[in-house]
Amino acid sequence: MGQQIAHFVTTDCQFDVVGFVDDWQVKGSAVNGIPVLGCIDDLLSVYQNGVFDETLIGVGYKHFQFRKSLYEKYKGSVPFATFVHSSCYVDPTAEIGRGVVVYPRCIVDKNVFIKDNVIVDFGSGIGHDSVIGPHSFLAPMAHLAGLVHVGEMCMVGVGSTVIDHIQIADSTTVGGGTVVVKNINNPNGVYVGNPARFLKSRE
């Protein structure tokens, strides 16, 4: 995901990517021509040395707690960027937090609030007056109608549909292609199907 984000922020001419910090790569090596500056614990010192101005978290939806812990650890000491691809429509009344990545061809409607450290993947649509909780992930082509409230660390799967006025509890996974027509009040659940039904607890 870090490589994918780096591709879009550079090809959309919004940022220059100066490097990765990565616990699984060797410092001084390169990933797609981009240098590895150190491990994650080196992030603050690299920033204090003036190597970069802002950062983004390139960790995917299988590691929600890790994404959250990284953001909380460095919030206030390392600035987080916000990236919205230029092909998106974002209404002027929408509010987008820090550390958010909005991929190409997304729609963010009137009075939407996307909280910190959220990823909105390709072609997703967020209807008016909806709220996306921090550290959540909207997969490609997820569609949310108006007045939807998605909790913290939620996954809304690829091609899923959420009708209007729906509440989705924290730490919920909505599976790919799922249609949500009733509130989901059980945290830590995985929901699938049309209409959505509880499948199992989220690990």
Folded structure, characterized:
With 203 residues, the chain is of the alpha/beta class. The chain has 2 domains: 2-74, Rossmann fold (3-Layer(aba) Sandwich), CATH 3.40.50; 83-192, 3 Solenoid (UDP N-Acetylglucosamine Acyltransferase, domain 1). Helices cover 13% and strands 26% of the residues. The protein has 3 helices and 22 strands. The strands form 4 sheets. The chain has an 8-stranded mixed beta sheet, with no helix packed on it. A 6-stranded parallel beta sheet has the order 5-8-11-14-17-20, with no helix packed on it. Strand 21 (189-192) and strand 22 (197-201) form a beta hairpin. It is globular, with a radius of gyration of 17 Å. The two termini are 21 Å apart. The model has no long low-confidence stretch (mean pLDDT 97).
Blueprint (SSEs and pairs):
Elements: H1 2-11, E1 20-21, E2 30-31, E3 34-38, H2 43-48, H3 64-74, E4 83-84, E5 89-90, E6 95-96, E7 101-102, E8 107-108, E9 113-114, E10 119-120, E11 125-126, E12 131-132, E13 137-138, E14 143-144, E15 149-150, E16 155-156, E17 161-162, E18 167-168, E19 173-174, E20 179-180, E21 189-192, E22 197-201
Parallel strand pairs: 1-3, 4-7, 5-8, 6-9, 7-10, 8-11, 9-12, 10-13, 11-14, 12-15, 13-16, 14-17, 15-18, 16-19, 17-20, 19-21
Antiparallel strand pairs: 2-3, 21-22
